[in-house]
Amino acid sequence: MHEVVNPFDRSVIGSVPTADWETVDGYLAKAEALHRDRSGWMKPHERAAILHRAMEIMKERRDHLAFQVANEGGKPLIDARVEVDRAINGMELCIHEIGALKGTEIPMGLTAAGDGRIAWTTREPIGVVVAVSAFNHPLNLIVHQVAPAVATGCPVIVKPASDTPLSCFEFIDILHEAGLPKGWARAVQTPRDASEKLVSDPRVAFFSFIGSAGVGWSLRSKLAPGTRCALEHGGVAPVIVDASADLDATIPSLAKGGFYHSGQVCVSVQRVFAHRSIVDEVANRLADAAKALKVGNAIEEDVECGPLIRPKECDRVAEWVDEARDAGAQVLCGGEKLSETTYAPTVLLNPPADVTISQNEVFGPVVCVYSYDDVDDAIAQANSLDVAFQAAVYTNDLAGAMHTYRNIDASAVMVNDHSAFRTDWMPFAGLRTSGHGVGGIPYTCHEMTIEKMIVIKA
């Protein structure tokens, strides 16, 4: 059995079974057989009914699921409840997408060669889906990777993060309780060698990965020929705050985007570029907001910043902040470990561009504020890294907002909102080394299907 601990006090809170390669191989064989047997494919209304029943079960267990998210993942209860609500809504989105999985007519009379023919496409499930997930949203990420597979009719095997498997295993159990035959969805906790064999197996048609870039790109290089994939990694999200911004609205938004889940979010606010005329006010007010946050065990109602997922991550954040401080950054608040797994919400002013925290995703409760005179210089610095995901700009100047939108490297730019904003039906895509493919439930459903054409000669 694999034991799971609360990341704040490291107490054991549960366990899940471990699976060796023989077990995983059996799951793969069953999944492939289900996909190959077209006569046994679940009908759209059957898939919709299962997802609907699962959604109702999740609603009934909302409080339990939220506590479990907080207990295993360290996300404060107030945010864990939001995650569960998003997961429930994600199920509804998947049900809706079943009706949207349709092809299109292909015009055939555009040349003489096409005369006398009609053609159209339909969408079919791509095949066996294997998903590997991250710890930071232990229920909602699983819903994003597994529920679209169920909606599209793909058998799926999911490996959750080893730190947070409880929510994943419970979600799969809920699907089974709702009527999904076990062979269509399995959760596995495996050693690394078995995980790599699973991912690289030629029976896998689609691979979904959420996690670190190093692991994701490495696994992509090991995929069997023909396996499609979607990778979601992190960024070092840039935010532009110009001199016209309404700071009364901007500061609370930046604080939420930077310190939500103690910064353990792939599009968390990390690099704030503020115009020189307001940089001190932005940095100091943001520091005041950070100082007011309560840090502690995420299962306590009044905690706003929980622990980092494991002690070594807390140590790493401390090392990066110390390096920036030694290189000349001003530490306006925080800058210290509070316990083995908690780090004080921290604001750094003008860390050098070449220190680690200016160039890499911190995945911790640290926001860096940089001064700029020319917005194009700030945009150039924002664009200087090999990652690109979501970005933001705070301004009351429409032309300025559009200038940043057109010139900053990002797949999405939020105006007067933080970079971590997301709805589950919008496209969500990392660029450069930040990812491959497009997430978001409708887009994932599309990627888990193939478009198949029929051409009829009259």
Unreliable spans are none
Gap from first CA to last CA: 62 Å
According to DSSP, the number of beta strands is 20
With helices defined by DSSP (H or I, 4 residues minimum), what is the helix count?
A: 15
Question: Radius of gyration, rounded?
Answer: 23 Å
Tell me what the structure shows:
With 458 residues, this protein is an alpha/beta fold. It contains 15 helices and 20 strands. It has a seven-stranded mixed β-sheet with strand order 12-13-14-11-10-16-17, sandwiched between helices. It has a six-stranded mixed β-sheet with strand order 7-6-5-8-9-19, with helices on both faces. Strands 3-4-20 form a three-stranded antiparallel β-sheet. Helix 1 runs parallel beside helix 7 (192-200) and helix 4 packs parallel to helix 5. The radius of gyration is 23 Å and the shape is globular.
What is this entry, summarized?
The protein is an alpha/beta fold.
Tag the structure with descriptive keywords.
alpha/beta, 6-stranded mixed beta sheet, 15 helices
Annotate the secondary structure layout.
Elements: E1 2-5, E2 12-16, H1 21-36, H2 44-60, H3 62-73, H4 77-100, E3 105-106, E4 117-125, E5 128-132, H5 140-152, E6 156-159, H6 166-177, E7 185-187, H7 192-200, E8 204-210, H8 213-220, E9 228-232, E10 238-241, H9 247-259, E11 271-275, H10 279-291, H11 311-326, E12 330-333, E13 346-349, H12 356-359, E14 366-372, H13 375-382, E15 387-388, E16 390-394, H14 398-407, E17 412-415, E18 431-432, E19 435-436, H15 441-447, E20 449-457
Parallel strand pairs: 5-6, 5-8, 6-7, 8-9, 10-11, 10-16, 11-14, 13-14, 16-17
Antiparallel strand pairs: 1-2, 3-4, 4-20, 9-19, 12-13, 15-18
Helix pairs in contact: 1-7, 2-4, 2-5, 2-6, 3-4, 4-5, 5-15, 9-10
